[in-house]
Write a structure and sequence with these properties.
322 residues, Farnesyl Diphosphate Synthase, 2 domains, 1% strand
């Protein structure tokens, strides 16, 4: 079996070999641009790891890996437009560089390109591969819509929030791993279990992201700590606080929406989180989803040594420091 770093090199090489049409250049240049910005490539790497787990042919899984990575970057282009984000991976976002209209069209074409990649998998698995990819893509779009709706709702429940992050974030990891299993001709039950592994890991990862946004080391986290508090984002921590807070504390939390002093706002909301031990409760739920992931992996009837690399990667993903 290959190491994750070896698989990443294969993915990067495959990305550089993609030939997009030359005309109109303004449509395809943004695609080459965002695909070339790098990133961790976690999803295509774990797709290939899933293929190797079930002893499938690695090269036959490359088109599926490219489909997943192309789709993921398509969502980033459109997400950046919706968020009016100026930077992506430290560089100008596509809409900042080429304008909103071109960014929308380039993103649309990326969805087509993703499907073109996927149709290169073996014909014997094409139907289940397409079904899995389409269900995954639809779920991600549903999750993004729910996330936007939550911005204007004051009655979002924790269950609704978990479902939103499942759709927006976790189904793409689960779908990628299931695609890897399908290409490897894994048994249907095993393909479902590796999906459960990826989906539960994705939920745990996002819950950890919520925690790190408040309690993380900014140098190690890679993002501004307290960003979710500044933007009044409805994370697990905030929703749990709203569920537990006494009326006086709930009123104080609501009042922070008008606090223009960002440093003080972070301090005030974090104080409330500490009072209700919200971090500890979020960590407990995160661990439950991580255990669900490992339980799904245990149910796959393969020698334990074949699962080791994937388990190590999962632990590495979840070993970000606070």
């Amino acid at each position: 079996m290959h190491s994750p770093s070896e698989l990443l090199k294969k993915i990067e090489k495959a990305i550089t070999e993609i030939q997009y049409p030359a005309h109109p250049a303004s449509l395809y240049e943004p695609i080459s641009y965002i695909m070339g910005l790098g990133g961790k490539r976690i999803r295509p790497t774990m797709l290939l790891m899933s293929t190797e787990l079930f002893q499938g042919d690695l090269e036959s899984a490359i088109p599926a890996a490219l489909a997943i990575e192309t789709f993921h970057n398509f969502t980033l282009i459109h997400d950046d437009i919706m968020d009016n984000a100026p930077l992506r991976r430290g560089q100008q976002t596509v809409h900042e560089k080429w304008g909103d209209n071109t960014a929308i069209l380039s993103g649309d074409v990326m969805m087509v390109e993703a499907n073109k990649h996927l149709t290169k998998v073996d014909i014997s698995v094409l139907r289940p591969a397409l079904d899995t990819f389409n269900a995954t893509a639809q779920g991600v779009c549903e999750g993004q819509q729910l996330d936007m709706e939550f911005e204007t709702r004051e009655d979002v429940s924790i269950d609704e929030y978990i479902n939103m992050i499942r759709l927006k974030t976790a189904v793409l990891l689960g779908g990628a791993m299931k695609l890897g299993a399908i290409v490897a001709n894994a048994a249907e039950g095993d393909a479902e279990r590796i999906y459960e592994f990826g989906e539960n890991l994705g939920i745990a990862f996002q819950l950890q992201d919520d925690i790190l946004d408040v309690y993380g080391d900014p140098e190690k986290f890679g993002k501004q700590v307290g960003g979710d508090i500044i933007s009044d984002k409805k994370t697990f921590l905030r929703l749990k606080l709203q569920q537990l807070a006494l009326p006086s504390h709930a009123a104080h939390l609501s009042a922070q929406a008008n606090n223009s002093n960002t440093a003080d706002k972070i301090k005030q909301v974090t104080y409330l989180y500490d009072q209700y031990q919200v971090k500890e409760q979020a960590t407990e739920i995160m661990q439950e989803y991580l255990e669900n992931a490992f339980r799904a992996m245990e149910q796959i009837d393969l020698p334990e040594h074949r699962k080791t690399e994937l388990i190590n990667v999962a632990n590495l993903l979840m070993n970000r420091e606070y």
